[in-house]
Amino acid sequence: MSLRAATRDATGAEEVPAVVPVHVGIIMDGNGRWATSRKLPRVEGHRRGVEALRRCVRAARDIGIRYLTIYSFSHENWSRPVTEVSELMRLLKFFIRHDLADMHAQDVRVRVIGERAGLSKDIRALLDEAEALTRGNQGLTLVVAFNYGARQEIAAAAASIAADAVAGRLRPEDVTVELISQRLETAGIPDPDLIVRTSGEQRLSNFLLWQAAYAEFVFLPIYWPDFDKAALVSAVNEFARRERRFGGVVPSPAR
Ligand code: IPE
Ligand code: IPE
Ligand code: MG
């Protein structure tokens, strides 16, 4: 699904994409390499990554993207050194505390996906607060994937369906693609049209595996702390040039 862009860039000069994806997923990768290439500690890259995230949210809003899902911490990221994990936790708290009021003022709605159970009480409380405060907002929906893993999400959906089946509330033939989609944490959010990954890596790393069935992928050769509006515009322009077929055929031009 995509919409014609309704907005022009404030400067008038920058090309505003002609076709804007409704939902963009971003794998914010390369913080560590950004830092080590400057002989800085990896955590410095994460700190600068928060600034890139702030630019990204504003740019997504300016361009007219409706849903932006950001991969902030994966289920597998717990395997990193304890000091790096605690800095990533601290930065999430900092981002919510520092930016929530501003995002609320920008009419951004915050939704969080990922396992809450494994997170500390103060982080859970902040995530709840962000969702509750912005629940009624109508602008960009920012989906924060934190402690998220797509396989874990699908396994949890399967478990909830199995529980309903055992209780006699569902029959095997009730288990459809739509039902599974409704049991995922992204229920009600359209599938991503475009997935962008920075850092040059070309993999999903357990991000939105089910939802990305027909997403377009754009891999940017920049590290996440260098991400800006121009990078987002270039990814969206690349998306606009793609021919999406969804398994069908594209009608040939009339002769
Ligand atoms: C992305 O940057 C941030 C998270 C995964 C939390 P990385 O920390 O993965 O940076 P690289 O890939 O090691 O450079
Ligand atoms: C994916 O990046 C997770 C996030 C961006 C939060 P990683 O850096 O953890 O992924 P791999 O290890 O390179 O696949
Ligand atoms: Mg990485």
Broad shape: globular
Helix share bin: 40-55%
> Could you please say which CATH topology applies here?
Undecaprenyl pyrophosphate synthetase
**Which class in CATH terms?**
Alpha Beta
Amount of beta strand: 15-25%
H and E string: EEEHHEHEHEHHEEH
| Domain module count | 1
Describe the structure.
This protein is of the alpha/beta class and 255 residues long. The protein has one domain (23-240): Undecaprenyl pyrophosphate synthetase (3-Layer(aba) Sandwich). The chain has seven helices and eight strands; from the N terminus they run βββααβαβαβααββα. The protein has helices spanning 31-36, 42-63, 82-105, 121-134, 150-166, 177-183, 229-241; strands at residues 2-4, 19-21, 23-27, 67-74, 109-113, 141-148, 194-197, 216-219. The strands form two sheets. The protein has a six-stranded parallel β-sheet with strand order 5-6-4-3-7-8, with helices on both faces. A two-stranded antiparallel ribbon has the order 1-2. Helix 4 (121-134) links the parallel strand 5 (109-113) and strand 6. Helix 2 (42-63) packs parallel to helix 3. The chain is globular, with a radius of gyration of 19 Å. The two termini are 28 Å apart. Residues 1-8 have low confidence and may be disordered. It binds 3-methylbut-3-enyl trihydrogen diphosphate (2 copies) and magnesium ion (MG). The site of one 3-methylbut-3-enyl trihydrogen diphosphate has 11 residues, from strand 4. One 3-methylbut-3-enyl trihydrogen diphosphate (IPE) binds next to strand 4. It comes from Xanthobacter agilis. InterPro entries: UPP_synth-like, UPP_synth-like_CS, UPP_synth-like_sf. Belongs to the UPP synthase family. GO terms for molecular function: ditrans,polycis-undecaprenyl-diphosphate synthase [(2E,6E)-farnesyl-diphosphate specific] activity. Its EC number is 2.5.1.-.
